[in-house]
Amino acid sequence: MAGLVQVGEHRTGRQRPERPERPDWLRIRIATPERYTQVKSLVSRLNLNTVCQEARCPNIYECWGEHGTATFMILGDICTRRCGFCAVATGRPQAVDSDEPRHVAEAVAVMGLKHAVLTSVDRDDLKDGGARHWAEVIEAVHGHNPDAAVEVLTPDFRGVDDALEIVLAARPEIFSHNMETVPRLYRQARPGSRYERSLELLADAAERRDRGDYRGRIKTGIMVGLGETSEEVQATLADIRGAGVEVLTVGQYLQPTREHLPVDRFVTPEELAEMRRHALELGFLHCESGPLVRSSYHAHEHVPEAMRPASARGEPLVAAAPGR
After folding, report:
1. From CA 310, how far away is CA 306, in angstroms rounded?
2. What confidence tens digit (pLDDT) does each residue in 27-40 have?
3. Which of 208, 69, 46, 59 is nearest to 148 (CA)?
4. How many Å separate Cα 98 from the centre of its chain?
């Protein structure tokens, strides 16, 4: 059994570097109104995981309390990778929960969501990386909630053949996979992942969209403040746009614990606004860029009305179901 570690004590005995104090623009307003409590209770009752909790998202009070929305994290709460920026636990995952598609669909219905966001841990232990389970959850949400659009934020599936095709065949309205950072920082920030593989996944999704096999939007997100240069950010945005991605999110990296990568610097709101301007000049259709922006922040605004399920627009379902 590993020895106990006192809170605040480093395992090596060395003094941890002090985390820099957050500037005023990163102050989080904490509020737990009744709606927040209702969402938390529902998530617990249905034995669901949310990235809002597991990744310590700074927007949880706004999303749960003001909007009654949550990003569901499927395939368990244990990841098979150990990214330097992520607070999700790493280890040996449990068996896939066959009831999860039904539970997620029920939660979307009870919460009355018109835009459901799904993400997952990496499941490199599964032959298909979890792609089939992904499809089952998407189909269950659509089946029980014909008015709801579904956005998926998937892992890279380690480049497994057919994984992307399986997920897109379930017809999510938005397919997303995060690039996270610039190529130079991948080794320390995303061990087990590769910049080229993530870019290729997005490009493959965009290619299917362009030839009419998939009728949704392609989205990605990056963090800033890990040590990247402005030139590296611009080059990465150009790569992403060149891959055919339409929607982009850019937000400040915040160190979840002292065991994770330190913040190199706090990027100002003005710099983030400039990144948004540059992204739109590159041809992105939509860009959310701000200190507390995360992948699913204001996600419902990223789906144009014409791409929403037909019943949500007051039209016959068969007339414009995604992918038909």
Report:
1. 8
2. 666 555 566 666 66
3. 69
4. 22
